[in-house]
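hiii so um. not sure if this is the right channel but i have a protein structure encoded as tokens and i wanna go backwards to a sequence. like what aa goes where. can anyone help
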């Protein structure tokens, strides 16, 4: 098993180091290949996603990425975030999975990741008007909906398709396609919800949701909202999957330049992304479950400052490794 590791920017290398420590302990035969990406790649190569890095990601079994973004490049023409968008598009990891669990809440947001406004035509007209275009082809909608329905079959069998069909033509097409795909899954309940209502329902009744499927921008917003009501972005991992390409696994929080180098970053989201990689990218569900339980245990025994504790990033990783020794049957 070969994993391409893109450590990321600011706190990225710190939390990525803990993920690599845990992976080497949990799966000794794994091969971890660190590659230049993001801000450091811009400094070294003038490109946040060098050609050699992209090729290594394509040939890997999975890609594990730390958070990216650096204030040095916030107003620059070339930015780390551009490399991330290109990587998603090149690997065609169109299905972004964002689980959110806490208490009675257990939902999964399936966000379309390589279409919509983030990838549509954009520009500035002569009169100063700026535009960003939301575009979708029915085939893009069909494949993400089909993935959502398949995932619902292994959960509680309920898909909520979120759109803005009362206003947007893209959403009306989205709703038609989602309805058509649903006919192939008679064992799955499907309903449709406008995005503004979905945002409200997530706050008021999050337990009503099982699988939410939606377009890129709506998914970006709703998944952050779901993370906020189930512990915060600092604890949330994600998986981005395609058809046959290696998956991309990354925490959803930012690179936190304000605490970079202090040793206080919380690696929980990076480790939860690692668990998703073990399960969905490398076919190691048993190790994934062990890691999930170990992260939960470390959150109790060694909380970092963002959770009111005093543990360092390294000490949190040590607590995870200790929990793995206790729980591992090996």
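sure thing!! here u go:
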């Amino acid at each position: 098993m070969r994993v391409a590791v893109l450590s990321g920017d600011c706190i990225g290398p710190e939390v990525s180091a803990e993920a690599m420590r845990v992976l080497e302990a949990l799966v000794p035969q794994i091969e971890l290949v660190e590659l230049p990406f993001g801000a450091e790649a811009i400094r070294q190569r003038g490109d946040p996603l060098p050609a050699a890095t992209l090729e290594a990601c394509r040939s890997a079994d999975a890609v594990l990425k730390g958070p990216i973004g650096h204030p040095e490049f916030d107003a620059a023409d070339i930015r780390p975030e551009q490399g991330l968008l290109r990587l998603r598009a090149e690997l065609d990891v169109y299905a972004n999975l964002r689980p959110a669990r806490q208490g009675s809440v257990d939902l999964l947001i399936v966000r379309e990741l390589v279409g919509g406004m983030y990838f549509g035509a954009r520009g500035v007209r002569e009169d100063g008007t700026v535009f960003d275009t939301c575009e979708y082809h029915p085939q893009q909608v069909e494949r993400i909906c089909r993935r959502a329905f398949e995932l619902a079959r292994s959960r509680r069998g309920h898909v909520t398709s979120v759109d803005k069909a009362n206003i947007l033509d893209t959403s009306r097409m989205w709703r038609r396609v989602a309805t058509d795909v649903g006919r192939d899954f008679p064992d799955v309940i499907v309903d449709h919800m406008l995005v503004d209502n979905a945002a409200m329902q997530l706050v008021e009744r999050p337990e009503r949701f099982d699988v939410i499927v939606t377009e890129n921008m709506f998914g970006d917003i709703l998944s952050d909202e779901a993370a906020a009501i189930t512990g915060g972005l600092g604890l949330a991992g994600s998986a981005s999957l395609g058809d046959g390409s290696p998956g991309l696994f990354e925490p959803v929080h930012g690179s936190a330049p304000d605490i970079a180098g202090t040793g206080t970053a919380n690696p929980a989201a990076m480790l939860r992304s690692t668990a998703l990689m073990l399960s969905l990218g490398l076919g190691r569900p048993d190790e994934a479950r062990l890691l999930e339980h170990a992260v939960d245990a470390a959150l109790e025994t060694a909380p970092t400052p963002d959770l009111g504790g005093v543990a360092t990033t390294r000490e949190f990783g040590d607590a995870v490794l200790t929990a793995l020794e206790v729980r591992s049957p090996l």
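oh and The radius of gyration is 20 Å.
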